[in-house]
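[agent] plan:
  1. take the single chain provided in the ticket
  2. run structure prediction with default settings
  3. attach structure tokens to the ticket
  4. add a short note for the reviewer (M.T.)
[agent] executing step 1
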Amino acid sequence: MTVTLITGANKGIGFETARQLLELGHVVYIGARDTGRGERAAETLGARFVPLDVTDDTSVTDALATIAAAGGLDVLVHNAGILAADTLDGPTALRAFDTNAAGIVRVTEAALPLLRESANPTVVTVSSSMGSFWAVTNPDRPESTMPLALYAASKAAATMLTVQYAKAHPAIKFNAVEPGTTATDMTAAFGIGRPPQESAAVVVRLATLPADGPTGTLQDESGTLPF
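[agent] step 2 finished; step 3 output follows
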């Protein structure tokens, strides 16, 4: 039995990732800061709900304690994130990095004791090629035309954290994923993106790697991306 926690999983890519992993036989915990939405999502899917706000240390600690008490954790998917495109100032920057980067540190550190006990511990960070220097400076890539400073910078941090965790914990697979431009609440203003189900499949592939799978990479559906 593979136990998986997905942060920010009450909608979008996280929700569809939960659905697909449940179909593969995982026990899935939907982490969400909004209790009502999280409980409804879990009930819809047949998953388990755990209150989890990645910007709150106590919330993170309590969530992982709940999962530990139920038996353990094998797969962690860092999906929670914000666009932070409304304005460019200090408070907004702090909020973007707190959610998109510091949240990864909070949840990972709380999850590490459980992951070390797993036979195939796996961590997937839903990052973005918007945080790739290669992509945002490549005129052939759509990222080069999108001025999303805080999102891009915080996702660069998310990918770098993934690489550094992979180096520090070689017994655990840590990979970042560019899931593809997806039609979610986050991209609604742009009117772009494919169905979340398609992007979730990219996340699921990395969440179900074998024990000898790659680690310390940034990947999309075609393979490893430059960073």
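[agent] step 4 note for reviewer: The first strand starts at residue 3 and ends at 7.
[agent] ticket updated
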